[in-house]
Amino acid sequence: xxxxxxxxxxxxxxxxxxxxxxxxxxxxxxxxxxxxxxxxxxxxxxxxxxxxxxxxxxxxxxxxxxxxxxxxxxxxxxxxxxxxxxxxxxxxxxxxxxxxxxxxxxxxxxxxxxxxxxxxxxxxxxxxxxxxxxxxxxxxxxxxxxxxxxxxxxxxxxxxxxxxxxxxxxxxxxxxxxxxxxxxxxxxxxxxxxxxxxxxxxxxxxxxxxxxxxxxxxxxxxxxxxxxxxxxxxxxxxxxxxxxxxxxxxxxxxxxxxxxxxxxxxxxxxxxxxxxxxxxxxxxxxxxxxxxxxxxxxx
Length: 299
Description:
By secondary structure, the chain is an alpha/beta fold. It contains 10 helices and 10 strands. The strands form 3 sheets. It has a 6-stranded parallel beta sheet with strand order 1-6-7-8-9-10, with helices on one face. A two-stranded parallel sheet has the order 2-5. It has a two-stranded antiparallel ribbon with strand order 3-4.
């Protein structure tokens, strides 16, 4: 867990609670995927059972000022490098989470391999300095994600599994010199599975690592033949250009949905958008600031 009040699916009680949400979404005729996420080094001992250090492929600390914890702002810690025999257990955790998502009625799962979280830390040379089966050349750094995909394939068919990658992102202190080689190789490998979609955080709205030119959806289109999703900072107009040009099949929206609960209707009817939500509202658990943004008719 990276933040307080982060929803999980590691207990039967959570499965039951998710069933209500999935059912409500399905009444609108909409499919819903559950994103599976392990924070890796982007966490803190304050969140861990018994105060244990966060884990990562290698003991490399995030080089940022602070992390928000239940005890206020604290310095990032040097994570504990995972032991070789621990990694298959985390792969099993992903499989179990996918099984629970299936039980809860989700239409599929999205494996979050982006954003400087655990899988991304394995994929990138900046954060993976292992010397075992999961470290070194890109073929080895990809193995952790490969094993997770194939474990989940024992629970769900490939067209109910998606993967999210962030080749351009500096978020959580990421960015590797060999990023282009790394992510094109990963996309090419994932292309063999017939996934539901490949989700690429190609936009630069949350920062760019400046290690070359930004990767584009067109580059991924050359190596990935399945449905391709773009993300991060798109406007309605930019998303329509990307889809109409054929470089993307879908565009995802995150932050605009926080301040615009009726975003689909606003796009459909060209209604103006509410002002963006303040960052303090992104993770709010209070009744105000996350679930009380007005619809167009209310505003």
